[in-house]
Specification:
Layout (H helix, E strand, L loop, with lengths): L1 H26 L2 H12 L4 H11 L9 H8 L7 E5 L6 H18 L2 E3 L33 H11 L5 E2 L15 E3 L27 H12 L9 E5 L14 H7 L7 H18 L15 E3 L13 H14 L4 E4 L5 H12 L4 E3 L7 H8 L3 H13 L3 E5 L3 H14 L14 E4 L3 E4 L6 H6 L3
Parallel strand pairs: 1-2, 1-5, 2-3, 4-5, 6-7, 6-9, 7-8, 9-11
Antiparallel strand pairs: 10-11
Helix pairs in contact: 1-2, 3-9, 4-8, 5-7, 9-13, 13-14
């Protein structure tokens, strides 16, 4: 009899828990639901909660697609006009901006699109970003770096006018797409190049808002619309990464257009684990739902690995970064990818003289995450660092680095307005400064990146 009562009570208790769970998930509202949710969070695995919060919250808040929607509804779209783009080489920021440029050109001319591939750099020489560059560039799909499903879902919601095709295989029965009209943006009649950008190598357009009209005029002269057979393919080759003056876009567009390309989920998950372990190692509190704590830790990028660009020597970069960290009274530093092992060790030892702790992601992962990290390429590892650096209290790097500009500008949009370009409390040549990020460099270095990046 006693056993029967026990079983009966256990069944009643289990049913009660189910009712409470349903109430919390679906019936509870306002403060009551928040209280119960907070209560049960304490009994879940802290790492699981942290990673979930990280994946479900962006440092810039929810995506706002109003600017994108306005852009797309304001264009005239032509069914059967198809844009393809050459595979994009370079660093992660270069690749991201190149893919976004392809999307933007398709919108400007009202075309359908096949999203470009990513051309991976040499695994033997990081400075070689276009290995075996003979003929049409071949690459890997954009989901090698980014979340393709998120891109398609977001575009479908805010720019449904843009039709995205999987590949040229969608046109297997249309042989005319095999001989496209060639498009080189810098050879489009009427375009103007910004002339006030020293060191920009003539990359940035002066009047980006006219590009769509100028391209269509050129295409229509080569192939009059009245006699044109659709589908009609236009092939952008090469795909430039820094050609559109994004700084001239309306704020609702510029602040969010770059967020169409979100880092792929598994890399974001590794970054979340890195941040979770970092807060334990530094005894600080990081809450992915609440933006950043400016006093938590500083993130530093040093670029001394082989690279197509000539960065300042290690001693100069290290001096600038250390001065920045010391001036801001930071005692914890997260060092991103980009430096040689010798320079990582040297910087770590030098920071000890100022009672500053330095860690890297390799020191902050374990188990499956460590195994996954060990299998990543140089640029994939940078993507992990991108996610971590966005959550740092402070960030510093060199103005020649597209990665540094991408992080700095994204953090500006998320956390605060830019400050003075001259900051007397910081040593070195300060190129750009905000309350949360500072980039070092001489004169106008990186100005084309600052004006062209959609972070």
């Amino acid at each position: 009899m006693a056993e029967y009562r026990l079983v009966h009570y256990l069944r009643f208790f289990a049913a009660f828990l189910v009712v409470v769970w349903i109430f919390i998930q679906f019936g509870g509202g306002g403060d009551t639901r928040t209280q119960y949710t907070s209560l049960f969070r304490k009994f879940r695995d802290q790492r699981t909660v942290f990673v979930s919060d990280f994946l479900n919250h962006d440092v810039s808040g929810p995506f706002n697609g109003d600017g994108l929607a306005d852009l797309c509804t304001g264009k005239k779209w032509t069914q059967g006009l198809l844009l393809t783009c050459d595979a994009v080489p370079g660093s992660i920021a270069d690749v991201k901006n190149g893919i976004l440029t392809c999307i933007r050109v398709a919108i400007e001319i009202g075309a359908e699109i096949i999203l470009p591939d990513i051309m991976l750099r040499s695994t033997m020489d990081f400075a070689d970003i276009t290995p075996h560059d003979n003929g049409p560039r071949r690459g890997v799909p954009l989901e090698h770096f980014f979340d393709r499903a998120y891109l398609l879902n977001t575009m479908g919601q805010y720019c449904p006018e843009l039709k995205v095709h999987e590949s040229l295989n969608d046109f297997f029965d249309e042989p005319n797409v095999l001989t496209p009209a060639k498009l080189d943006i810098y050879k489009v009649p009427g375009i103007k190049i910004a002339s006030n950008l020293p060191g920009s190598a003539g990359k940035l357009l002066l009047e980006g808002d006219k590009l769509g009209e100028q391209i269509l005029d050129m295409i229509n002269k080569k192939s009059p619309p009245r006699t044109r057979k659709y589908p009609f393919r236009v092939d952008l080759r090469p795909t430039p990464s820094y050609v559109m003056p994004s700084f001239a876009d309306p704020p609702p567009l510029r602040r969010y257009f770059g967020r169409l390309l979100r880092v792929r989920p598994d890399l974001r998950s590794i970054a979340a684990s890195v941040l979770f372990n970092l807060q334990k190692a530094f005894d600080v509190v990081i809450d992915p739902r609440q933006g950043i704590d400016i006093d938590a830790f500083a993130s530093v990028e040093l670029r001394t690995q082989p690279d197509p660009l000539k960065f300042p020597v290690y001693a100069e970069q290290a001096s600038d970064s250390l001065s920045y960290v010391v001036a801001n009274n930071m005692s914890q530093v997260y060092l991103t990818e980009g430096a040689t092992e010798e320079d990582v060790n040297s910087f770590t030892e030098r920071c000890k003289d100022f009672n500053i702790n330095v860690v890297t992601k390799d020191q902050l992962v374990e188990g499956p995450d460590a195994l996954a990290l060990a299998q990543l390429s140089y640029d994939e590892r940078f993507l992990v660092d991108y996610e971590v650096a966005l959550h740092a209290g402070l960030f510093t790097g060199n103005a020649q680095s597209s990665f540094a500009w991408s992080v700095g500008l994204r953090r500006e949009f998320a956390f605060g307005d830019p400050g003075s370009t001259n900051s007397s409390h910081l040593n070195g040549t300060l190129r750009w400064h905000s309350p949360y990020s500072s980039l070092y460099g001489k004169n106008n270095v990186g100005d084309d990146l600052r004006r062209a990046i959609w972070p």
